[in-house]
Each structure stands twice: as C-alpha cells, then as structure tokens.
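<context>
A single protein, sequence plus fold
<sample>
Here is the protein in question:
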Amino acid sequence: MNNSQTTDLQDVVIRFSGDSGDGMQLTGTLFSETSALLGNGISTFPDYPAEIRAPQGTIAGVSGFQVHIGSRPVTNPGDYCDVLVAMNLAALKANRKWLKKGATVIVDGDSITEQNMQRAGFETLDPIAELGLEDYNVVVPDITSLTRAALEGSGLDNRAVVKCKNMFALGICFYLYNRPSDHALKYIDGKFAKKNPAVAEANKRVIRAGYDYAANTHQFANTYTVAPAPLQKGVYRSISGNVATAWGFCAAAEKSGRPLFCGSYPITPATVILEELAKRKDLGVKTVQAEDEIAGICTAIGAAFAGNMAVTTTSGPGLSLKSEALGLAVMAELPLVVVDVQRGGPSTGLPTKTEQSDLLQALYGRNGECPVPVIAASSPSDCFDYAFEASRIAMEHMTPVILLTDGFIANGSEPWRIPSMSDYPAINPPVVDQAPEGGFMPYARNEKLARGWAFPGKAGLEHRVGGLEKHSLRGTISHDPANHQLMVSTRAAKVARVQEDIPALKITGDDSGELLVVGWGGTKGHLQSAVEQLREQGKSISLAHFNYINPLPKGVAEAFAGFRKIVVCELNDGQFAGYLRRNFRQFEFLQYNKCEGQPFTVVELKEKFNSLL
C-alpha cells in the first residue's frame, strides 16, 4: 500500500547505473517498457562501457541506461536525471554530473566500502560530501544485503543471489513512480521459468521486496505519477533503432516481391540488425554471418545479382573495408543497401559510443567517381521508414544506397505505432523477365536512368557483370575514353535523379526569421526540443532537419534564404557544414559541433542558440 503523498508530473528522467554485469540495461528496459504499456511517451539511452569487462568497481566499467517518460510525446532521453540509481560508488561518481538540482539518489549502501572508494578514485572516506550531495535526496538502502535476505532459503548460490539485486532497485522505482510490476514479472517468467524456474522465482521475489522496502520504510516522502501521453490511436510497442531497421527491410522485401538477403559481419553497434533478421526465417529472410566485412558485402552483391533484395550492415571501420566492393556494386549497378551504424572515433575508437563522423566516408570514401545515394534516419522508430526508403531507392533506381544511423538511435528505443502495410507504397524494381525485340541490352535505361534487373538462368538475358568499365548499352568490357566519360556522367545523373523521387525539405517553425538550426540524422530529437522550447519563449528560430543527404532534397536554397543566420549542429567536427558550403556557396554556415561520444543536451543547444540570437 502506498502511504506517501502522490504528485503528478509531466515527465521524469531516471538513470540506472552500475557495473557492466549489474543488469542495468535490463532494469532500464523493463522500467521503460512498463511505462510504454501505461501509455507514456518514452525515449531511452543505453550507455555501455567500451571495455568488454573492465575491472569491477571502476569508472571504466560503468554501464548506464537512461529513460525519459512523459505525459506527452518524448523526443529525447533527457539531459539530466530526476533519479539516479547507482549500484556502486563508481556509478555514483561517473553520473554525478547528470543530476538535476535536488534529484533523488539511490545508492547501494553495501557498496560503500574503503576498497570500493579507492577503486572509484575517491580521495576521502565520505563520498556523499566529496561529491557535494548534501542538498540532494540521498537514499542508501543496503540493496545487496536486502536481496540476500529476500532470497534466504531459495537454494541459489551467493553469486546467483547477488545477480538479482538489480530487480530490488527496479522494485523501488516501481513504487516511486506508481508502476505496476505485471510486465516485468511476465518477462521474467518468459525468460527464465522453463529453463531455470528457481531464478525466475528469485527475481520476481526481489522485485516485490524492493517495492515493499520503499513502501514500508518511508524514506520517500513523495511518490509520483506520469499520465499517459496523447498518442495517435493504434497498437504500439517499444522499439529500438536496430530492430526497426531490420523490420523495415522485411517490409520492403514484402512490398517489392523480392526475397531478403543479409550478408554481414558482427560489429558494434550494428550486430542486432543481423541478429533480428536471422530470426525471420518465417518471412523467407536469408542471413549469412560472414567471416569478415569484405565477405559480408560480397555475399550481398552476389545475392543482388541473383535477384534478392540485398543488405549488408556495419559500422565505420567496416564501411572502410567494404569500400572497394561497394564500388563494384556501383559499377555493376546492382541494388544494395549498406547500413552504417556510426560510432565514435577513427580505428577502433569508441565502439559503444555515438558519433556522426562517417558522413564524408559515406559520400566520398571510394576510389574513382563513385556516387551513391546517402540517407540518414533520425529516431529509433523512423529507422523502419528509412530502411524501407533506402530499399525502395536501391531497387527502383538500381544503385547501392548507404543508410546512416548511429549508436544513439540504434540502441535507444521509443514507442512505435505498428503500421499497416497498406500505408506503404509498392516497390517496383525494373525486373526484366524476357528479352525485348532486338535483344537484351543490360545497360539500356528507363526514365530513372535505372538499367534492367535480369536474373541469371533466363535464356536470352545472359549478360556480364564485374568491376571493369561497361559499354553504355551492351555491358561488355569497354576501355573507350568517350564511353567511360559517358558512363561516369550517367552514373552521377542517375543518383542526382533520385531528387525527383524524394520529398522537398520542410521547415519546422516559421519559413523565415533570425536563426535557422540545421541538423541531420540522429540529432533531431534534441534539436527539435531545443528549438520548440525557445519558440515557446517567443524566439525567432526554426529547424531544418535532413534525412536525405545525397542527393539533397529540393527547396534547400529557398529555405536557407529566409534566415539571417544558419547554424549547423552535428556530432562530428563539421562534415555536413562543409558539404553544405560546397553546395551552397552563397550562404554563410555557422557550426556547433561535439565529439564526446555522447548526444547533444538540450541545455547546451539552447545556450548556443541564445548566444546566436
């Protein structure tokens, strides 16, 4: 029974944090999914450590999961948290900077030992004072000990018992925000009940123990409710960007009538797309986990030649390795979607952190004149739409397409209204089933400059493909200078003609004013929130967000001309800003850039925009 005073909130941000083995991702996921089922707007940000197994109790090993729930649609996971759940002192120290003033901090009291203080890098024996938390609502339950007490007589060994402590923290948060535990209990039964019923029962018992502890000890003077958000009617589920990407490909395969093939090599943070597609044998999806990145894209090119809707997935280092084969797909003019889930840094860099620094590689990172369409998704749920769109462009225009997402939206999640396939257009690839009168010319083109897609094994449609330059009609090898110039120009014109097949640029806000904020890809949620909040204050500011990068949509110059200042915001050192300068020399572009492996915060964006206003 809840005896605390209950307060209604419009939104709340909770950050679960602990060692990488403390189950913070599962805890955050169960809390966010429970909130989604209650109808809240949600946005999540899983924040993984880069090391697979950093030393326990150290800053390097801290894993976090932030969830923002609201009584209205939520566009980002929030800047600073109202509640921090820290399962150890390293998590407390690493996340101190993300606390709102007066936030509630829940720390496992059993973790406050001299040894753990040393591991986390504290200089004194009073971590609360050292971090300046005297004015915060700090609650220090002995979560590990209470978990052991709750599971006394369960028959589990000590290690298995301690692994349940994340569920104690979840129970506390369920009480604090008046969340039912039904979904979490059902999830645990589905995951453990058949294989290990003792573990299932233990986790469920600990959730109840955490809830009861919070209810009975009166350490929380207030509990809170967050009303459902006014969402469009329909059936919703919580979806991550990587899962949405995989499902978008399945939808495109259905709408095109072509079987889906994915050849990929596992790489963080893109691997889940391959894993999700591997589950869809019921939809006829074929997947190959290749031995390396080059083999992954080459199997996909072979599948495209054989008539499949072909996909390969990767991150920045893998895109580098795929570049030569991508050139082969351009030369052969075969449909292929290459997904690049961007991460931080050159080389291995920051494998688990987000960045937008592969843009120039996507645009230009191949030998020769080798243009490909480049599009970018901007939220976890619209990864579905842009995976579908990338597939449509690839097949209807007979070209490889690069789809850019990033670690932030790939791992993050939000509510997604499950669409009807009748809402999506048919995809009409230029399939050639029989030779036309006069014989088949494999590089004869339609109004989109797309060549015909003839599958092997059909009499009269025999033709050659490969990396050497092709005759402009027959497709035979040609070293003729004039033919090469014609083919270079034709391939560029084919990509440029995609502009006729995509929507014009739309401005969020007024069509003219003092400041136009420009962004692309996964920064949209933070940029949109910052712009909307400043517009509510009467500021003259609008947003132009790009999902189509090459070619750019129509109406860009006209949109830019209406504003006195333009600032381009991106999680790199200015790649899109430089691209726009090359294409629109008549405008001056200011920049706001960040390369910290973290998304923007709305607070820092508003400060920058106010300084420009």
